[in-house]
Amino acid sequence: MDQFLTFLNDGLLGLTLWQRVLVTLALTHVTIASVTIFLHRSQAHRALDLHPLPRNFFRLWLWLTTGMQTRDWVSVHRKHHAKCETVDDPHSPQTRGLRTVLLRGAELYMAERARIDTLERYGRGTPEDWMERNVYSRWVWQGCGVMLVADVLLFGVAGIAMWAVQMIWIPFFAAGVINGVGHYWGYRNFDCPDASTNIAPWGILIGGEELHNNHHTFPTSAKLSVKWFEFDLGWCYIRALEALGLATVLRRAPVLRGVSQSGRAASPIDLRTLQSLINNRYDVLARFAREIKRDFRKELAKLRLSAADRERFAGLMRWLRKDVAAMPEGQKDSMQDLLSRSRLLRTLLDMRAELAAIWQQSSVSREQMLAGLQDWIARAEASGIGTLQQVAARIRGYAAVGA
User: Whose CB among 106, 143, 194, 231 lies 3.0–4.6 Å from 171's, allowing a Cys bridge?
Assistant: First the structure.
C-alpha cells in the first residue's frame, strides 16, 4: 500500500514540484509549436512544406493534447481571414465583443467547425489519409484520454493538474488571446484592412503568433516578424527544421532593399515596380505616414496658433495613418481647418490618398494602374516637397525580394 501511495504521489519519474511546473510549460510549448508551425503556417497558409516526420509528429501531438482535426482548424482559420471583422467572422472581438472571444473562444471555434459549409469551402488540401480517417477524426477525444493516462503514470496525481493545463492552453491562448486581444489591443506596424494588432514584439509565449498584425498583412509568410526589434520563436524552429532538411520555406513577406541614389534615378517605373509597390503597400503607406507625422509636427511649430488650436490640432495626429473620411465629424472639421492653413499638409494627405487608390481600383487594368503610378511619381518628384520626393525615390529604387 505504501508503494502504491508513493507511486500515486510521485509517478514513474518522481519529479519535484518545480520540475513538474517546467515540464508542464515545456509540454504546452510543444503544442503551441505544433499549432503555429503545422496548423497555421504550413496547412492554413501554405507558407512552408514539412517533411513527413515533423508533419506526422505534429498531427499526433495535437490529437493527444487538443483533440483538434487539421481540416476543422484550417477551415475556421481561413474563414476568419476571408470574413475578417464582419458578422461572418467566426471570432472577431469587433463584432462579438472582447469578453466573448477571450472567455468563450473555444465555444466559438466548436460552433464554426460544426458548419458543413465552412468545412467544404475552406478545408481543401488538408490531410485525408488513413490516420486522419480512422484515428484522428474517428476517435476525437480519446487522444486526450491517452495523454491523461500518460501524465498520471509519469507524474502521479499531479499529472491530472498538468493535463488540465495542457487542455486549456490552446483554448485560452490561441482561441481567446490571439483571436481576441490580437484584434483589439496592441501596436500596429501596418494599416491592413482589419483590426489586427501585434500584442508584443517578442513572439515567445505563443510561438510568434503574438505578431498578429504582421501576419494579417502578409498571411502567406512563414516568418511573422518584420521589424528589427521583433522576435518570432516559431520562425527559429522553422529555420532549424529547414537546416535539418525537414522543412522547405515557400513564402516570406517581401523585403524592400534599396539601391544607390544613382540607381534610383535611372530605375524605370514599370510593371515590376507596380507589383513591388502592391506587394509592399502596407509598409510603403506606414513609412509614408511616419514621414507625414514628422512634417505635421514641424507645421504645428511653424503656424501661428492659439494654445487651444494647437491642442485641438495635435489630437489629429493619430488619424494620419488612417482614412480621413472615417474621422468623427468634429475632428473632420478640425482637420479641414488645419489643412486650410497648411498647403504642405493638404498636399501630403492628398498624395497619400492618391497613392493608396492606385491599387484599390479593381476595375482597371495593370497598364492603367501603371500609368497612374507613373503620373504620381512624376508629380511627387516635381512637387519640391522633400517627403514626396523621398517616397518617389523609394518606390523607384526598391525591388521586392525575399530574405
Answer: 106
